Amino acid sequence: MSGARLVGVILVVGGVLALIYGGFTYTKSSSEADLGPVSIEVSDEETVNIPLWAGVGAVVIGAVALTMGGKR
């Protein structure tokens, strides 16, 4: 498999996942206070939204890379 085809497959899969899920959530922990044996931690849940145009663009560019990657 050539490099262009591999990039195409990765872009198509990533674009489809972006269209299905629309974003992802992760937990960010931070140490707020550390007073001797007592430690206070705060966990914040962050959400990253992936725009619709980015998912569609990744699928289109991946499809072009797949079709053009094998031609010489």
Folded structure, characterized:
The protein is built from 2 helices and 2 strands; from the N terminus they run αββα. The protein has helices at residues 3-21, 52-69, and strands at 23-35, 38-49. It has a two-stranded antiparallel sheet with strand order 1-2. It is elongated. The two termini are 14 Å apart.
Low-confidence stretches: none
User: What would the principal axes of the Cα set say about the shape?
Assistant: elongated
Structural category is: alpha+beta
Largest sheet: 2 strands, antiparallel
Helix content: 40-55%
Rg computed from alpha carbons, rounded to a whole number of angstroms: 20 Å
Distance between the termini: 14 Å
Q: State the strand order across the main sheet.
A: 1-2
* Number of DSSP E strands: 2
Strand content: 25-35%
Q: How many helical stretches?
A: 2
Q: What is the H/E order?
A: HEEH
Q: Overall mean pLDDT score?
A: 87
Indicate the topology.
Blueprint: H1 3-21, E1 23-35, E2 38-49, H2 52-69
Antiparallel strand pairs: 1-2
Helix pairs in contact: 1-2
What is the compact description of this entry?
Helices cover 51% and strands 35% of the residues.
Supply the key terms.
72 residues, two-stranded antiparallel sheet, alpha+beta
